[in-house]
């Protein structure tokens, strides 16, 4: 769920059926999810103000911190996962503070970002997050977050690592929803090359396991089911895949044009992810899929 600081919900134009929720609305949407048998939600924050260091991510009164406290107060049995990144909070749209690498080129300054990611994770755990999910793809981020959580007394909070995250065209609608399109450069310097091959995927996952990851994630899902299967065969940690915004938007658009049966397409797609080895699936189709599986109607 996307949560912003406004009092009214606003629709995401590129993701039909998805909203930027107020905190009050996020609580009600979480309540609906739980009533449908969905036992966890993942939160992405959209602050009113952004800055070069992404300060809203680790603000104790930040939008995700407040949303987490509100959801846990109303629904203590629901698992709240907090996306642990800075890209929604920086004014340049990257996943950490920038440094110039020459010839007018910029990239994220890896090591200073680790400290900010650890601060973010601790702040989210202090607010009540049950799981933190680092998605910045910084070298050493799992170790830094694990150490920060342990030192702050949150050794019981697991780390769901975006271990294998590609520089994908499928993220476009998410960046529209979160206002996180980079203003300079792109994220290809720290996300993975789609043509990078299996060795890179295994290397990234092994590093995160060695640093203390409790879950591994492959993102996106559909174009990388072979990578998902590879990790399933290699590791015994819980494996997550993220059915990302572009994958969602393609199905929604085709269904609205009458080109595809939405229900059958979504359930077939999610079944394929499960068959490839996913123990859990993050998807914007979740509420509709739960209703379909229960035999109920989909929301318009």
Q: What percentage of residues falls in helices of 4 or more residues?
A: 40-55%
Mean pLDDT: 93
The low-confidence parts are none
User: Helix count?
Assistant: 10
> Secondary-structure element sequence?
EEEHEHEEEHEHEHHEHEHHEH
* Fourth-tier CATH superfamily name: Aldolase class I
Any overview of this molecule?
The protein is an alpha/beta fold. It has 10 helices and 12 strands. It has helices at residues 23-35, 63-74, 110-127, 141-151, 172-178, 198-211, 225-234, 245-256, 262-276, 286-293; strands at 2-4, 10-11, 19-21, 40-46, 79-84, 98-102, 105-108, 131-134, 160-165, 215-219, 239-243, 280-283. It has a 6-stranded mixed sheet with strand order 2-3-1-4-5-8. A 4-stranded parallel sheet has the order 9-10-11-12. The protein has a two-stranded antiparallel sheet with strand order 6-7. It starts with a strand and ends in a 7-residue tail after the last helix. GO terms for molecular function: porphobilinogen synthase activity; zinc ion binding. 5-aminolevulinate 1 binds at residues 175, 187.
């Amino acid at each position: 769920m996307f949560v912003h600081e406004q009092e009214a919900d606003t629709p995401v134009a590129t993701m039909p059926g998805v909203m930027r929720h107020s905190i009050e609305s996020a609580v009600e949407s979480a309540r609906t999810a739980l009533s449908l048998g969905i036992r966890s939600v993942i939160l992405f924050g959209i602050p009113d103000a952004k800055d070069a260091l992404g300060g809203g991510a680790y603000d104790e009164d930040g939008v995700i911190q407040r949303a987490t406290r509100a959801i846990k107060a109303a629904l203590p049995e629901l698992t709240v996962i907090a996306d642990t990144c800075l890209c929604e909070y920086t004014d340049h749209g990257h996943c950490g503070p920038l440094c110039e690498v020459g010839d007018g080129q910029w990239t994220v300054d890896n090591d200073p970002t680790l400290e900010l990611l650890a601060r973010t994770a601790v702040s989210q755990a202090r607010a009540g997050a049950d799981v933190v999910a680092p998605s910045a793809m910084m070298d050493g981020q799992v170790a830094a977050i694990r150490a920060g959580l342990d030192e702050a007394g949150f050794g019981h909070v697991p780390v769901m690592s975006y271990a294998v995250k590609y520089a994908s065209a499928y993220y476009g609608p998410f960046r529209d929803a979160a206002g996180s399109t980079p203003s300079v450069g792109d994220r290809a310097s720290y996300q993975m090359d789609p043509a990078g091959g299996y060795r890179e995927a295994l290397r990234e996952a092994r590093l995160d396991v060695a640093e203390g990851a409790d879950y591994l994630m492959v993102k996106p899902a559909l174009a990388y089911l072979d990578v998902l299967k590879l990790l399933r065969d290699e590791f015994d940690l819980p494996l997550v895949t993220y059915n990302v915004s572009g994958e969602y938007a393609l199905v929604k658009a085709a269904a609205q044009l009458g080109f595809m049966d939405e229900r059958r397409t979504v359930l077939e797609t999610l079944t394929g992810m499960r068959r490839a080895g996913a123990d859990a699936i993050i998807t914007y189709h979740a509420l509709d899929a739960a209703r379909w599986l229960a035999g109920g109607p989909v929301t318009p």
